[in-house]
Amino acid sequence: METTTLQAEVRDSRGKGPARRLRAEGKVPGVFYGPGIEPTPLTLSPKELTKALRGERGRNVVFKLSVHGEPELAMVKDLTTDPVTQELIHIDLYRVFEDKELHVDVPFHTQGRAAGVVQGGVLNVTRRTLPLRTTPANIPISIDVDVTHLNLRDSIAVEDVKLPPGVVCTLKPKLTLAIILEPRKATAEEAAEDAAAAAAGAATASAAEAEKAKAKATT
Question: What pTM did the predictor assign?
């Protein structure tokens, strides 16, 4: 299983005051918790965290860290960032096990240009992530679906998506994930409104030109 080693120091101090001091020192306060352990306050490197979270797995990266001298696997449960600088302020790490299932959200991507789009249709993707149930070892980087075969009004539902072994999507099987919509046709009322707006614009322009000519003639 692919993991990212994360250096962590167990800290004795708790509360907002010590956490602010840690951030002032360029460190990130965090907490490690989960089944079978007591919540443990940690001090972490913002550089290591940022690099890992910006990788291809994003928040689904599996960390390997040492707590009380014992190796542990952990994933991001929650994190807080500064709304202006986007710097990490605090992170919650949750204990996971290689062979135990968990719930994650994974990016959903479409690939290729659909035949229906070539015909003038529009590809409408209803979800950008998929909720999955799997073990840490089987978490996919993303779920990619080829849409080149889709014609107008064709769609892809959850049940049409081929998932890797050991991975289950928790959405309803019939839920639509992507559909090729037909080109939108303007109604007669909209066409009349567009024509009226164009005529009004032309009349305004003509009036402006006439005023300019009249002003020039009187000078």
Answer: 0.75
Over the stretch 111-123, which tens digit does the pLDDT of each residue have? 999 999 999 999 9
CA 41/CA 59 separation, integer angstroms: 20
Angle at 139 (CA atoms; ends 133, 141), nearest 5 degrees: 125
Three-class SS of residue 86?
coil
Q: Mapping DSSP to helix (H, G, I), strand (E, B) and coil, where does residue 92 land?
A: strand
Distance CA 163, CA 168 (A): 7
- Give pLDDT tens digits for 52-109: 999 999 999 999 998 877 889 999 999 998 899 888 889 999 999 999 999 999 999 9
